[in-house]
Write a structure and sequence with these properties.
By secondary structure, the protein is mainly β. It has no helices and ten strands. Helix content is 0%, strand content 46%.
Length: 123
Amino acid sequence: QVQLVESGGGLMQPGGSLRLSCTASGFTLDYYAIGWFRQAPGKEREGVSCISSSDDSTFYTSSVEGRFTISRDNAKKTVYLQMNSLKPEDTAIYYCARDFGPCGWDPEDFESWGQGTQVTVSS
């Protein structure tokens, strides 16, 4: 059964750090780009970061560039999102999903969404 499971969310003060994990099962992670998306209350789901399958190229939306780092460990079947210098506007449910094609920002291109992990940034 194809599955992606997110973990690592929680409550953090502004300026703090969290590391999210997206663990895959039921398929070969190496063959897929993995994207991180987030959805805040009342807002549309937006792409945050993506890592390609071919050469591990990484992509970030402008609001997280320089603060977030995506990486993958195919042996552990896990993709990570290291989030530093967190801001209140980073508060959202974070999801990961897979894409057999190249990285992109359209959620419609992704499949096998996880259940999400809540990230709350507040003092």
